[in-house]
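User: I'm putting together notes for a lab meeting next week and I want to include a structural view of one of the chains we've been expressing. I don't have a solved structure, so I'd like a prediction I can at least talk through. The sequence is below, exactly as it appears in our construct file.
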Amino acid sequence: MRRYDRPFRWAGRGLIRYTGPLSFPVLHYGYDGWSAPQDLPMQRDDAGWVAAIPTAGRHVVDCVVRSARSQECDNNDGADYRLWIGLDPVDAHTHVRAPGGGTLGFDSLRTAAFSGGMTHALVSWTDNDLVEIVAEATPWLTPLVWVRPGGPDPADVRRRLAAGGAGLKLHPAYDGYPADTPGLDPYLRVAQEAGVPVTVHSAPGPADPDLIRRLAERFPAVRFVLYHTYLGPPEGRKRALRHAAALPNLYLETSWCRSAEAERLLDELGPDRVLFGSDAATDGPDHYVRRPPNIEMTENYNTGLLRLAQRLAPDVFRAFISGNARKLFSLPPAYPQRRRRLFRRPSL
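Assistant: Thanks for the context. Below is the predicted structure for the 348-residue chain, given as structure tokens.
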């Protein structure tokens, strides 16, 4: 098993594979928020341990593994594991600034992503070298290149995109510049040449959606993603939505939006330009499962996504949680050559 790969994955519909550290594992699992929990001993094969479970009419499997020979339990550092049935979810908005745990640590991101059932994530931080190193070691992470007026050099940005970067990341509030500054133009020309999207923190002040709209108007061939849609009062989200409705190169991402708000954005803009993202792991390893709830004190990401899966048409939810991000950022399928790869151990 690769050092940073997932210990759980589907080996086919209804067949769960475990490649984690425990021997003689017993799968303890439930459905859709731990309903009907039960235990099932897993069976050994050439690629790890497997268990067949029924999945009809369910959205997710929540699970941990216990050893039948000891008191050991693999519960994802207390956050549990989640597997989406028939879906390969993407978190379009994550960060890593250091190894280890804590806020924005890699271990925290890994725990959070596995607890939410994410099979891929886009990652960024101000230290592009660190982000590249982490993504290189982690098959389910794809880097974005962080840029600001005056740095890094556009030639360096081209090199990073050619090496696997999926797009650019702008954070006008963190780096202290107005989102429509001409100082971004050299990087936006690089994005246009490479055909990659540009993600932008959207919030009051220098990252206001009105300013981001000016960027989109100045570079109509570049696709812009408003991270958070708007991290602020509802009035700003309404303006962001109006701008996206007017300009086809604007996309909305829903980190820190309640599920009802995400549903409204999907209804009003349509299912093709709204993406799921979480801003993990700014709330540490419990980012997806935080209690008390961390999204406007009403829900966490796992409860919100499950509500959306239960309410939205299946094709709309699939586009929101996976398809739109994979298409926009040219991400690979979650499990290329799935059946062939599952029956051999990937090299380190």
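A couple of points you could mention at the meeting. The radius of gyration is 20 Å. The chain is about 30% helix and 20% strand.

User: Perfect, that's what I needed.
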